[in-house]
Amino acid sequence: MASVVLSEAEKVYIMHGVQEDLRVDGRGCEDYRSAEVETDVVSNTSGSARVKLGHTDILVGVKAEMGTPKLEKPDEGYLEFFVDCSANATPEFEGRGGEELGTEIANTLYRVFSSESSVDLKSLCINPREHCWVLYVDVLLLECGGNLFDAISIAVKAALFNTRIPKVRVLEDEEGSKEIELSDDPYDCIRLNVDDVPCIVTLSKIGYRHVVDATPQEEACSLASLLISVTSKGALTSMKKMGRGSLDPESIFEMMETGKRVGKSLHIALQKILDEEESLGTSRQKVGFLG
Amino acid sequence: MAAITMRLPVARGVVGPGVPRGGEKHLVAPGDTITTDTGYMRGHGTYVEEEKLIASVAGTVERVNKLVCVKALKTRFNGEVGDVVVGRITEVQQKRWKVETNSRLDSVLLLSSMNLPGGELRRRSAEDELAMRNYLQEGDLISAEVQSVFSDGALSLHTRSLKYGKLGQGVLVQVSPSLVKRQKTHFHNLPCGASVILGNNGFIWIYPTPQKKDEEAGGFTTNLEPVSLSDREVISRLRNCIVALVTQKLMLFDTSILYCYEASLPHQIKDILKPEVMEEIVLETRQRLLDLEG
């Protein structure tokens, strides 16, 4: 994570502010920065989304490819995550500098989506034991402005919502060999149900209270943070503690409750914007990267 | 109660009058021809090719008698002697500190250019050198003045006045150096209840107005007492106003910040950063500034 250096007095100022529920930019402890979400920004993917949360800029592309199902789950497809920390975000990511952070984020995403109910993997199966859809989710970090995990999970959910997987038909030959036929109509496709896809909420502990959506300055003041993934119904699918400080079990419980509450509002806001974007249809003015 | 707002992106531009006041400005991009007249001397940001004067940076053309130069719009801080800067200590070396001031090279603050606590005037000894870290550590913020410029372009800073020195509690906002207007003084005590230091290098420091004059020279003891909630609200609002002005590319000086603050009072502090509210506030500020001039 690109870290900023702060003086002792600045850290004390931030900590006292959090105590009084007034952060440096006027937000409360449970407020998110204003986010911008746009889907379908990359044309050669099955689905894509771009999320801007303050200064954090994330681009996610989903590609659907045909593959063989895993041995232990022969009638399901699967998701593969890859995170690329671009050197655009911060000079620390030059060369192999961003690899460590990238693997950490990718492993967190695997864990978040490890729950069986997150994505309906059975709908991705074409032929049990032989063919299935593999969704390659590629995350690109364009700018680091604090709170990476939340922004990435919002972008992944938006990209999965936008994903269009072409419909395939399995044809049986006289000899018994199976042939896969792709539908001719480019608009004939199946879409994923993202109602149960979880979103990550990061709660950073600053002083005696915790904040949601920390800026890089606030992240420099917090010694420990809790990462929880929440579904739209408020169910927790995974939890991870980050940072070198310690957390009291009481505060972990409080943070979990805050996370569930904030997570539910996050899902409602995100679903509303995705539905709004979809209802605009082809009349939507695409902004992309030049806006 | 969590407040989460999401929006669809809209291509946004800068609001306000299209033609700048004070005549047309000659804007150039790298590679644009400035003039084909060979009688001019070329200054910074230009080069000569095939008897034409061509710009090498993107900015405005400045003409002083026979000297033509191009002043870049977005650039690192190019310090002049006498500029007030706000910087962050990056390294503690022998007899000097390296200060980050958003310029091409880290600036230098020599131990001899720093005031001793209590305002003593004496030669710096070996004990002073060993105790350097007690004065300023990595990460500390200071306000200083540019004393001189080294031959490689690095700035030499000094804090030989009571108003400069280590900064205490407050908020730092980093903006582009070209947006800070050059004025007589850069230390302002705003009537709304906070003070602001407009560093020429683009580092803006907002802090609560000190109640009484500190006896210590240069503020060696930092006051770590909690700042009151009313002061915090003023500081947060000022910080958001400055971010709004910078996003709309308005010059920063005490009057523009004050007008923006007053225009933002009807809104909640966290709403100032919403694009529609930002445009509305900056439009009102621009209007008031135009009325002030006209």
Quick overview of this protein structure:
Chain A is α+β, with helices and mostly antiparallel strands. Chain A is built from five helices and 14 strands. In chain A, strands 1, 2, 3, 4, 5 and 6 form a six-stranded mixed beta sheet that branches. In chain A, strands 12-11-13-14 form a four-stranded antiparallel beta sheet, sandwiched between helices. A two-stranded antiparallel ribbon of chain A has the order 7-10.
Describe the structure.
The complex is a heterodimer of chains A (about 290) and B (about 290). By secondary structure, chain A is an alpha+beta fold. Chain A has one domain (about 20-280): Ribosomal Protein S5, domain 2 (2-Layer Sandwich). In chain A, the strands form 4 sheets. In chain A, strands 1, 2, 3, 4, 5 and 6 form a 6-stranded mixed sheet that branches. A 4-stranded antiparallel sheet of chain A has the order 12-11-13-14, with helices on both faces. In chain A, a hairpin with a 5-residue loop joins strand 13 and strand 14 (about 235-240). Chain A has helices at about 10-20, 100-110, 150-160, 215-220, 250-280; strands at about 35-40, 45-55, 55-65, 80-85, 125, 130-145, 165, 170, 180, 190, 200-205, 210, 225-230, 235-240. Chain A contains 5 helices and 14 strands. Chain B has about 290 residues and is α+β, with helices and mostly antiparallel strands. Chain B has a domain at about 25-70: OB fold (Dihydrolipoamide Acetyltransferase, E2P). Chain B is built from 5 helices and 18 strands. Chain B has helices spanning about 125-130, 130-135, 230-245, 255-265, 275-294; strands at about 5, 25-30, 35, 40, 45-50, 50-55, 60-65, 65-70, 85-95, 95-100, 105-110, 140-150, 155-160, 165, 170-175, 185-190, 195-200, 205-210. In chain B, strand 9 and strand 10 form a beta hairpin. The mean pLDDT of chain B is about 85. Classes of the chains: A alpha+beta (about 290), B alpha+beta (about 290). Chains A and B meet through helix 1, strand 1 and helix 5 of A and strand 1 and helix 3 of B. Strand 1 (about 35-40) of chain A pairs parallel with strand 1 of chain B, so a sheet runs across the interface. Chain A: Belongs to the RNase PH family. Chain A: This is Exosome component 7. Chain A: Keywords: Acetylation, Cytoplasm, Exosome, Nucleus, RNA-binding, rRNA processing. Chain A: GO terms for molecular function: mRNA 3'-UTR AU-rich region binding. Chain A: One of its GO terms (cellular component) is cytoplasmic exosome (RNase complex).
